[in-house]
Amino acid sequence: LLPSGRTSYRHLYEYEYEIKELARRYPTLARPFILPRQSVEGRDIHGIEIAVDARHIHDGKPVFLNMGVHHAREWPSGEHAMEWAYELLTGYGKDARITSLVRATRNVVIPVVNPDGFTISREAPAKGDFSVFDYEMKRKNCQAADSPPDMRVGVCADNPAGRLRGVDLNRNYPGFWGGPGASANWRSDTFRGSAPGSEPEVRAVREFISQRQVTTLITNHTYSNLILRPPGVYDARPPLDEPTYAALGQRMADHNGYTSEPSWKLYDTTGSTEDWSFWNTGGFGFTFEIGPSSFHPPFETGVVAEYAGLPPAAGAGKGGNRAAYLEMLQATADP
Ligand code: 0X9
Ligand code: ZN
After folding, report:
1. Where is the active site (predicted)?
2. What is the pLDDT of residues 61-75, one digit of tens each?
3. Nearest-angstrom CA–CA distance, 60 and 106
4. C-alpha 253 to ligand 1 mean position (Å)
């Protein structure tokens, strides 16, 4: 069903192992890499790049970046990104459309942008009470510097502030940072951090986008079956090319059955990923909110199978995020 054949949520070590294994299986088509900055706790942030000659990174082709797990508890977001890597690698040379699109582009997948938070959420003992010690519901990264000294004691996985320690990586980008829809309080789940771009995980992504020719990106989250585009706040000027942006969002929504809309319609946010990337690089970026009703429902409920357009996907029978991502790749190849 899924390109990888997986039947359970990956752990961080499985993402890392599978990236290495794919690179071994597809030595010309795939290049594993580590972003030049580590997470707060010193973990590597892994990615895989897919192109006809994966190692020749400066061949002038546009880069489509597909990311997951800015938010720790949003496990399906990493799964969909990782399945996309399998899709391209297993489809190249077999599927005519994938082959021609891969020839025209470079594809980068960073399935877990927040490896510290993800590890805590994924490995947490089940509690399920949504208290601050319910680490499975952790959202932010592991930054401790902003909390008061008595709250800094203990490791990120077990400390007096529980899962509230950390910065919301989707409020820390330097795009409208300081505005509404983000908190200045370190305990908040939408804490923006001490300064725009203060977090190493955000710096890692920003530096990658700025140093490479990333023209399009999708940052995956869960949940609500939405395709979101800038602006994140109502009173920000809509992009000059809003009609083009909106049309691309709608073409993707036709595949996965989601609702495509400007992100402020959900609620105000500042410091989000694609607000920064659009206003700073001009590249088209979208947030996908995968799944109908929870951050990481049991795998068996099919929220990862929705990748392939299978029920209970909003657009079941259409094409799922597989088809939506291909639409984005088409736009990358042929802007
Ligand atoms: O609040 C968020 O960061 C996203 N929702 S989530 O439940 N995954 O946390 C929505 C962000 C929407 N705003 C922008 N993308 N600008
Ligand atoms: Zn999220």
Report:
1. 289
2. 999 999 999 999 999
3. 9
4. 17
- The pLDDT of residue 238 is above 90: no
Surrounding ion ligand 2 within 5 Å at CB are: 71, 74, 221
ipTM > 0.95, yes or no:
yes
Report pLDDT for 335. 82
Q: How far is CA 34 from CA 17, 39, 98, in A?
A: 13, 11, 25
Q: Which of 320, 332, 301, 329 is nearest to 227 (CA)?
A: 320
Q: Where are the alpha helices (DSSP H) in the chain?
A: 12-25, 75-91, 96-104, 115-123, 200-211, 242-256, 273-281, 320-333
pTM for this one?
A: 0.98
| Catalytic member of 74, 274, 289, 306 | 289
* 159 Cβ inside 6 Å of ligand 1: no
221 lines ligand 1 (CB under 6 A): yes
Q: How far is CA 328 from CA 132, 286, 334, in A?
A: 38, 10, 10
How far apart CA 43 and CA 132 sit, in angstroms, is 24
